[in-house]
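Methods, example record. To illustrate the input and output format used throughout this study, we show the complete record for sn-glycerol-3-phosphate-binding periplasmic protein UgpB. The sequence lines were provided to the predictor; the line carrying structure tokens was produced by it.
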Amino acid sequence: MTFKTILTATTALAIAAPAFAADKAQVQFWHAMGGELGTIVDKFATDYNAGSETCQINAIYKGNYTENMTAAIAAFRAGEQPHVVQVFEVGTATMMAAEDKGAVYPVYKLMQDAGVDFDQSAYLPAVISYYTDTDDNLLSLPFNSSTPVMWYNKTALDAAGVAVPTTWDEVEAAARALKANGVEKPFSMGWQSWTQIENFSAWHNIPMASEENGFASLKTEFTFNNDAVVNHIQRIADMGKEGLFGYGGRRGDSRGMFVNGETALWINSSGYYGGFKTDIKDFEFGQTMLPLETSVADAPQNSIIGGATLWVLNGHQSDEYKCVAEFFQYLSQPEQQAFWHQNTGYVPITTAAYELSKEQGFYETDPGTDTAIKQLSLNAPTPNSKGIRFGNFVQARDVINEELEAVWAGDKTAREALDAAVKRGNALLRKFEDANS
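The corresponding predicted structure is encoded as:
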């Protein structure tokens, strides 16, 4: 099914039915999925509503991840919170603290209270471990999970006579050949803290912070100003001076640079696949695993996830929470998850959805689309590669962004910027610890 077909069908249903069914329990679901992703989210809600006699899920787009989370927090303080809010992975520690204060209805308890079948072991370990408490209870429902991959313009690489790079030395060499062959800004990336610090560290099995990257306690302190990360960031800065790297923004702002051929090697989320299939017409593209810095590690460890989960907020009626539980069960079914995975590039959150995608021949017709899954499950996670859990990390990422932008602009060395980012970031960690101890 194409996005156009989905959009047409969803629009037709929306016209045919009222926005709110008066005789159904109403559930407000605030999400951060715009464009084609939002179309699929709307489809899931519409399809579920059509099959339920008692529940109405109202999926509402509230802006990007930060805007959606901020809106939900403000709504909760005003007593007008939604039932479900989509929160990106860096908001996990903040939401866990909110759970401790009674604002969150943990998913494991929601499903138990609603009497809805729920098997936590059905979920991919690399995904679910990120969102469980110390007793292995699931706090929020994994929904759109991704990991960064390296997207490449195969047509441009072939024209430049270079193979798909697998190491950072090869990335630099390929960028030089691409530049010589007319590619304006051969290498770029998005979500730079996530891709170039958080995942670079996990991929090379080095800690980003103490206390098992924040999983062990709130006393965690950042350590990403180590030699490995500093040298890596300085390499990218030096590539920029040579015209081999072009910075395009903090989130997915540089996506257009890859789509229009200005950039041929782009590190960002696997979740861009669906949009690329629709938008890229002039060249052949692919995705491959993250490059290895051979001076740091002999082999990669595993990447860590990004994306978001669905958190349930307290303060509503039991019949409405029953609907939330049933909707979560519906979203987790293999058919929905396989559809989501195949049309977006996000990883399937359950083993069954992965197996269904294999049975349907998806990885044969769309080669490379299992790259994210392979990266996440490459090795058993270590304390350095299980993930990250930092309080105030939304703000800390802004600090990291500011400091990295100073590097790209030539105003600071990588050492100066990362030392400053660690110092400023640690102040935010202590502020969070003080407020939640």
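Annotations derived from this record:
The longest helix spans residues 414-436.
The domain at 148-303+391-436 is CATH 3.40.190.10 (D-Maltodextrin-Binding Protein; domain 2).
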